[in-house]
Predict the structure.
Amino acid sequence: MIPLKKGSAGHDVFAKLFRGNFQLEEQIQPEASFSSNSSYVETEESGTAVVQTGKITKSEKLELEFSIQEDMRQEILEGNYKMAIAPSDLVDFGGQKSYDMTHQLFIQCKGTFVLMFDGRYGLYDALVEYKPKKITTMSILKHWIDSILTYCVDVFVDEHKLPKILFAATHGDAFPRDDRDERKAMFIKELTKIFSSYDLNEHIIYHTIFFFDARNQYDPEMQNLTRYLVDIAFEQPSWGQQMPVAWVPLELQISEMKTVERNFVRKSELQKVNEQNGDLALTDSQFEHFLRIQHSLGKLLYFGEHGINNFIVVQPSALVNVMRSFVTDEMFWPKDDDIKEILPVLSRTGVIRRTDLYKLWEQTHFKQLVPSDDLKKFIIEVLIHLDILVEPKQYNGTERSTEFFLVPCMIKEEAPTAFLNMEEMADKMICLSYRLKKSSIPAALIFKLIGSVLNVLPIKEQDGRQCLYYQAAAFSIDDNNECRMHMKGDRIVINLINKVSRLEISPDIAASLQECLTFALTNVLQFYYACIGKDIKKVDILKLFDTEVGVLCCDEICFITLNEVKKRKTWTCEKKIIHETHLYWILDETIGQDECPPECEGFPAKDLSQSPNDKHLVRLASELNISHFNEFLLHLGLKTKDWEKIEYNWGRAEDAMVVALLQWKESNQNVTFKKILDAQESIADNRHHLCQVFKGQPGLLENTSFGFQDTPDDRFLSTLSRKLGNCVIQLGIELGLTFSDIEAVYVKHPKDLFSQMYEVLKIWKQKTPENTYLNLMLAIQRVRGKQFLKRNFCCVI
């Protein structure tokens, strides 16, 4: 909305805008002496501005557009325009489950959702189009409400109680008025019965529904819904929100691109457009901020990640339409002979070839959306970033394939019975699960999690087929161990299985896998929160779900939270059966926790003036308490906003603490141990933490039978990278890499924990003259502890 202030300048711009609008309908007032080609508009002065709307030539139109732009720029500079934005986009989604992955990208935390269903059927009637499965309207409604409310947790609930979910029934014309009212009351009764007990039910408007006769454009139910939506819109916190005036030209220019159906634009092109705005041109940082805010509002899509920041999706629905070329329902699949066979393979195996993808995009309506090869490459990289397309990883450590992709959300084949046979696997598996605390697991979440794990672990192949199924997958860890993942009710269940026995599973493999899966799930949740416009720290994401361990009990799995089971040797399940605790696979984290002897006088005063190196800061971070770390940084001189940015970007607390200390050292000239000790004492922290930083590493030099002076080969490093867990920054610094080396690794492998670790080990081997087993083991002992070395190197320490 751009309210015009009183004055001739405002009217002049307004008149020019209307002269350029060839769709303006003529409105003639008999009592006024207007010419037959004139129109009028009411102004703030309650006067009438006569606007000529006769035909103008193309060159005149270009002149007019330039004049309008110049006049508006001048008006903005003089403060005569005030811009208030209240976004209210309408998006119509298909209801088939095939579209779940596309919908999740566009669900907004402040949005209003109208769930529509066919009013001719009861809420519990099996729907014909889903046969032979017994799928009902109620099950679909539950599915969508779970999908929407998954990301509306207590930490975000505000006085607006947004988002809002409403219900609307179609085919009201199939019933007489009295029958329609009776049926409407029945629907309301059933909806209230189910959703009044839901978590976060304040977001669900179940006490009313709208029953449409879609053939009647004056249907009062449609008018009632319109009024209801407007009322909700006025509750939006963005209503009347002030935006920078300097954004106005760029917003108008992007709006013009949408008008002429420009769906994608190069970032460099939009930057040039911005530069032409003269005094109102945004700086590079302001331009970047503008794009991110517009993305959070759903006005455009901008992925500011390395490799996918060269294009801007001006029309977000265009990306949905591109995805619809292969993420779609069978009823919409093209019947062309050279295309129709792609779907059966995709539905059965979850595999689509790159050549098939390009073939789909050669269809006329998709070719218009994706006209160039550069744009095709960008879209593929975006779809990989979104885990909708997954490039399968090979077990032999080779680079990812480019010939075909996996599409977890499109596979329809159910997992075989043997895949879920718990009784047969009871003595061979360790069982974990993840359960969201506030709602059930939406289908899109399990699809994206499978896709995320496929970036880390290779898919298992059996009898020439990849083990990828509907909401389930099996991954290879090594020749003797595999990981199976499936969704069961409100849990994502993970089974780590050994060919022989559970006792043969390496504790480090189990612990690393659990750490890797937790890391993947937090990344997936954080991604979805970013999509809906929420900025959430990873420490808060960890509060959204419970990590559980499970044991087979009477042909079912009984679960207990990992935090609870750590406290006891046995526990009793709901069936009143006592189970033993078997957590031998928890990683040893004792390194650095030993206390100084009573006679220790603390860090030597003579060394306090020395400057810590990167290794010292990594070791210090492992000693400090995260709950006091922000205060500790303040005493060092690092600002809270800088810490919050680091915590958001790096997520994992251990990593964020290391990065904060490294950045503190980088941004200050006089960095000493005394400053660290003073900061510790200011928050009453343990002054002996600095002693632990210099703690020795006894024992390794006594045993030289392992070939300590040899250089590890790449195969050894590849195997080791799958056992070390999530310690990329810590081990990299201990091995002598610079922080810039490690940052480059994260850019190259942004979501792949094992590849990050393998890349760090390869850089260490290539760059470091002392690239021996001895130095590698010393670094690992520092980060992972003695028990890790005992289990993995079979040496006496």
